[in-house]
Amino acid sequence: MAATQELHWQWPNDRTPDRVLQLTIDDIAPAKSGLFGILRTPSLIANMPEPQVVRGYLTDKPEQTITLTLPKVELGSLTEGDSAALGVIGDNICICVKKLMDGDDGITPESLCQR
Q1: Taxonomically, which superkingdom (predicted)?
Q2: pTM score of the predicted model
Q3: Mean pLDDT of the 53-61 span
């Protein structure tokens, strides 16, 4: 049975990720806001600008699936089928996402969130 981990988005605010996860993206879709927009309250992450739900699996552990909701602007040019590096703090806070190109083998937590 595949394990699914839900990551929660936060902006980096000059933080460095604890670790980097390499994700292969299966699906990107707009987040649903719920009946009558109830989930779009200021206190919920669903209130982020143009939230997108990214689903994929860890490249080195295909049985481990990941779900992340983040602002559309943070996706950049990522599309389904791409590989991405996710900068993670703690167990489930994602603070940066970067599309991986061929040869991007040396991604470190320190370099990932730099723009």
Answers
A1: Bacteria
A2: 0.84
A3: 95
What's the gap between Cα 62 and its chain centre? 16
pLDDT band at 115 (very low <50, low <70, confident <90, very high): low
Residue with tokens 């049975």: 1
Q: Tell me the helices (H) and strands (E) count for the chain, helix number first.
A: 1, 6
| 59 secondary structure, DSSP code | T
Q: Stretch 43-54: mean pLDDT, rounded?
A: 73
**What are the pLDDT digits (tens) for 11-47?**
999 999 999 999 999 999 998 766 555 454 444 454 6
Nearest CA among 96, 102, 63, 66 for reference residue 83: 102
Torsion of CA 34, 39, 45, 51, to 10 degrees: 40
- The sign of the torsion formed by the CA atoms of 88, 8, 76, 113 equals negative
Q: What is the set of domains in the chain, with CATH numbers?
A: 3-106 (2.40.50)
